[in-house]
Design goal:
This protein is an alpha+beta fold. The chain has one domain: NADH Oxidase (3-Layer(aba) Sandwich). Helices cover about 45% and strands about 15% of the residues. It has four helices and three strands. Strands 1-3-2 form a three-stranded antiparallel beta sheet, with helices on one face. Helix 1 runs antiparallel to helix 2 and helix 1 runs antiparallel to helix 4.
């Protein structure tokens, strides 16, 4: 958990660079949904929110970076490695929401994982899995996001 203003600011600068590269590469791809105006509108809102966070990450009061000790990261061990960290991070986000705290799941900083590790003084065998900015929600639009119908994203027995 990072609460020190200087550390947050430094991580925010790294994140800003990562976000700008992401945006330059196409970002949320809102144009991909040109044939679905409702979904495109959602993607545009997501993009605007992500852009704001990209510029203001260092100002968020708490940055949670979920980490895991990993001696060697190999392709065949991904589920074993991240299978406990990712659900724990998600549970943290649910607990934060229940307390009217806003969070976001992002991994863009991992493009510069070594730089963030150096800022935090992480040992070489500690790997970052997710960055979760956390703050009190101050707006009035805290609501569930629109979701695709389940039968369009879940397949049983075969595609």
């Amino acid at each position: 958990m990072v609460t020190d203003p200087g550390q947050r600011s430094a991580i925010g600068e790294v994140y800003r660079r990562a976000f700008r590269a992401y945006a330059a590469a196409g970002g949320t791809n809102a144009e991909r949904y040109a044939d679905d105006p409702a979904r495109q509108a959602t993607q545009l809102r997501v993009g605007a929110s992500a852009a704001w966070l990209g510029e203001h990450m260092g100002e968020v009061p708490v940055l949670v970076i979920a980490c895991r000790r990993i001696a060697k990261l190999s392709a065949g061990s991904q589920a074993d490695v991240w299978g406990s960290l990712l659900p724990a991070a998600w549970s943290y986000m649910l607990a934060a929401r229940a307390r009217r705290l806003g969070t976001a799941w992002t991994t863009l900083h991992l493009d510069h994982e070594a730089e963030v590790a150096a800022l935090l003084g992480l040992p070489e065998d500690i790997r970052q899995g997710v960055l979760i900015p956390t703050a009190y929600y101050t707006g009035e639009t805290f609501k569930a996001a629109p979701r695709q119908p389940l039968d369009t994203v879940l397949h049983l027995d075969r595609w």
